[in-house]
Every structure is written in structure tokens, then in C-alpha cells.
Amino acid sequence: AVKRMKSSPLSPEEKAYIDQ
Predict the structure, then answer these.
(1) Nearest-angstrom CA–CA distance, 19 and 17
(2) With the CA atoms of 8, 13, 19 and 20 taken in that order, what torsion angle do they form, in degrees rounded to the nearest 10?
(3) Would you state the pLDDT for residue 9?
(4) Burial letters 1-20, b for 16+ CB under 10 A, else e
(5) HEC string of the chain?
(6) According to the UniProt record, where is the region Disordered (predicted)?
(7) Are 10 and 19 within 8 A, CB to CB?
(8) What are the φ/ψ torsions at residue 5 (nearest 5 degrees)?
(9) C-alpha–C-alpha distance, residues 14 and 1, integer Å
(10) For the whole model, what pTM was predicted?
(11) What pLDDT, on a 0 to 100 scale, did the predictor assign at position 13?
């Protein structure tokens, strides 16, 4: 999965993509 800064607000779509 692609890691992004946890402090950054993510859209549900981004979170689903990152968490997969």
C-alpha cells in the first residue's frame, strides 16, 4: 500500500486505496 502522512485528511476513496 502507498503510505501518506497520517496527519493529512484523506477522502474515503484515498483511505480505501491506501489501506488495501
Answers:
(1) 6
(2) -160
(3) 72
(4) eeeeeeeeeeeeeeeeeeee
(5) CCCCCCCCCCCHHHHHHHHC
(6) 1-20
(7) no
(8) -65, 125
(9) 11
(10) 0.19
(11) 82
Amino acid at 3: K
- Model confidence over 1-20: pLDDT tens digits? 566 666 667 788 877 877 77
Identify residue 13 by its one-letter amino acid code.
E
Determine the straight-line distance between the first and last CA of the chain, rounded to whole angstroms: 6
Please name the amino acid found at residue 14.
E
Query: For position 12, what pLDDT does the model report?
Result: 83
Angle at 10 (CA atoms; ends 16, 6), nearest 5 degrees: 95
